[in-house]
């Protein structure tokens, strides 16, 4: 089995880099980077799973449409890259459900795989896995 994954986020989409309230103020670089990845995958005839932020789906939907149009697997990577262990269960559910719905509405099919930002599902917040199951995720790559 070969597994290839990418997290689709722009350079400022980490809460430890910038405040996620300021993201609309930064230069967008996601298009060029994703296009380079897609071209390389096409050249090598490879498919991958792309873990996408709901915020990217909302603000830059063509990025995700392009990935999906080339036949890649789309996964959820939260809404605004907030670390799971910094959220309570209610906030986590809202964040994840919002992101999943945005991405699904965009690509027209359900998504079944999730990856927490910063691999932030730990033994101290295993409740997150129960929420993922309730939201119909089949796989967690955190």
Detailed description of the structure:
The structure is a single chain. The protein is an alpha/beta fold and 142 residues long. It has helices spanning 30-44, 54-59, 61-69, 89-107, 127-134; strands at residues 5-8, 49-52, 73-76, 113-114, 139-140. Strands 1-2-3 form a three-stranded parallel sheet. A two-stranded parallel sheet has the order 4-5. Helix 5 (127-134) links the parallel strand 4 (113-114) and strand 5. The chain is globular and about 40 Å long.
The portion of residues assigned to helices is: 40-55%
- H/E order of the elements? EHEHHEHEHE
Beta strands, count:
5
Fraction of residues in β-strands: 5-15%
Instruction: Find the structural class using helix and strand composition.
Output: alpha/beta
The main pleated sheet reads as: 3 strands, parallel
Tally of helical runs: 5
Arithmetic mean pLDDT: 90
Low-confidence stretches: none
Distance between the termini: 19 Å
Walk across the major sheet and give the strand order: 1-2-3
Tell the overall outline: globular
Task: Please state the CA-atom Rg, rounded to the nearest Å.
Answer: 15 Å
């Amino acid at each position: 089995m070969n597994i290839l994954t990418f997290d689709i986020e722009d350079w400022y989409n980490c809460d430890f880099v910038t405040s996620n309230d300021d993201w609309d103020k930064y230069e967008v670089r996601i298009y060029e980077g994703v296009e380079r990845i897609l071209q390389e995958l096409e050249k090598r005839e490879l498919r991958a799973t792309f873990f996408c932020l709901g915020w990217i789906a909302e603000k830059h939907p063509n990025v995700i449409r392009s990935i999906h149009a080339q036949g890649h697997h789309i996964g959820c990577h939260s809404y605004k890259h907030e670390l799971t262990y910094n959220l309570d269960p209610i906030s986590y559910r809202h964040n994840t459900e919002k992101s999943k719905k945005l991405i699904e509405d965009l690509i027209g099919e359900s998504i079944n795989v999730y990856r927490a930002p910063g691999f932030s599902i730990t033994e101290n917040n295993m409740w997150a896995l129960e929420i993922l199951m309730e939201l119909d995720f089949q796989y967690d790559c955190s």
